[in-house]
Amino acid sequence: MSLLDDLKKQADQNNVKDADDSSKTVQKHQANWHALVPKLQLIITYMRELATNLEAINIEDKIDYPLTKTITFKNLSRENFRVRKADENSVRDFSFRYDLVGERNVEFLVANDFNAESVRGILRKQNTRFTEVITDQGKAQFKLKPKITILFQYIADLQNCMVTLRIHNFDRPEMQVIRYKPEAITEELMEETAKYILNKENRFRSLSGNDINDETLQILRSKLKKDGKIPTDGSKAGNEKQEANTKKKSILGKLLKK
After folding, report:
1. Which residues, other chains included, contact 11 with Cβ-Cβ below 8 Å and sequence gap of 6+?
2. pLDDT (tens digit, 9 = 90+) per residue, 83-112?
3. How would you label 184-215 residue by residue, b for 16+ Cβ within 10 Å and e otherwise?
4. Who's near 140: CB < 8 A, 6+ residues apart?
5. Where does the chain show beta strands of DSSP type E?
6. Spacing of C-alpha 140 from chain mean position
7. Among 111, 131, 130, which residue's Cα sits nearest to residue 68?
8. Are 152 and 96 in contact (CB under 8 A)?
9. Cβ atoms within 10 Å, residue 38
10. What tens digit of pLDDT does each residue of 131-147 get?
11. CB neighbour burial string for 47-64, b if at least 16 within 10 angstroms, e if fewer
12. Nearest to 146 by CA among 52, 226, 75, 247
């Protein structure tokens, strides 16, 4: 057999293998899609009804939103609840979203260094219009009307037969990622998600894979306060060092910050 014949044989074998692998992948994705689509329909139906109902009422309680560690937007209203699909013909990628909006313009000063650049980046990512001037003291002065868009984005993961939830900007300008198996997506989960969105007492974290639910966290928090391991309101200064050491030594430190 000549070299060209040998190479042709190898190429033919590789093409057959690639075609077989591709066929198996398509079959796997089709099977996973059949498992996921009823759950995606459950989510989008619930979220559409939630958006419709929330748009029909006036939510009176206001939200404070920390833009950075030192800048917080106060008294924001929740408005413009809606559901958006990436493709109108598919439920493979869609989001429930709403806006946090301030009633009036706000102004704040930031040192004209990486802090100012971070603020610019956050505002641009939010498509927030703002003006900026550099003061005589060399600081960046921002002026804007606060508007933050919150997204709960649901995406079908056909490879792993899961639904990925990306939560954008919920309580800070960050993204959280949660992955659900089909059997985890239930009416109860959607109910608790709605409560989570509305800042009501909920079991969203525990149903989303957090091994320690909110009730248990509260019990642990109360016990640590009683034992003097975290401060009460009247003894904060005296216990700061002890609290810091506790958080370093125990995973509860991370949980208690949530």
Report:
1. none
2. 999 999 999 999 999 999 999 999 999 988
3. ebeeebbbbbbebbeeeebbbbbbbebeeeee
4. 109, 110, 111, 112, 116, 119, 132, 133, 134
5. 63-66, 72-85, 93-101, 106-111, 130-134, 139-144, 147-157, 162-168, 175-180
6. 29
7. 111
8. yes
9. 11
10. 999 998 889 999 999 99
11. beebbeebeeeeeeeebe
12. 75
DSSP 90-130: -SSEEEEEEEEE-SS-EEEEEETTHHHHHHHHHHHHTT--E
Q: What is the DSSP string of 18-43?
A: HHHHHHHHHHHHHHHHHHHHHHHHHH
239's enclosing H/E stretch is helix 236-249
Residue 38 has pLDDT above 90, yes or no: yes
How far apart CA 32 and CA 160 sit, in angstroms, is 8
Q: Which tokens belong to 120?
A: 């610019």
Q: Which of 237, 59, 79, 211 is nearest to 145 (CA)?
A: 79
Q: Distance between CA atoms of 140 and 111, rounded to whole angstroms?
A: 6
Residue 64's φ and ψ, nearest 5 degrees, are -95, 135
Specify the residue for token string 């985890």. Answer: 184
Nearest residue to 184 (alpha-carbon basis) of 176, 174, 192, 194 = 192
Rounded to an integer, what distance in angstroms lies between the CA atom of residue 247 and that of residue 225?
A: 13
- DSSP three-state, residue 168: strand
d(CA 245, CA 256): 14
Q: Pairing between strand 106-111 and 139-144?
A: antiparallel
Helix (H, G, I), strand (E, B) or coil at 133: strand
> How far apart are the C-alpha atoms of 165 and 48, rounded to whole Å?
16
DSSP letter, residue 147: E
Q: Which amino acid makes up residue 59?
A: I
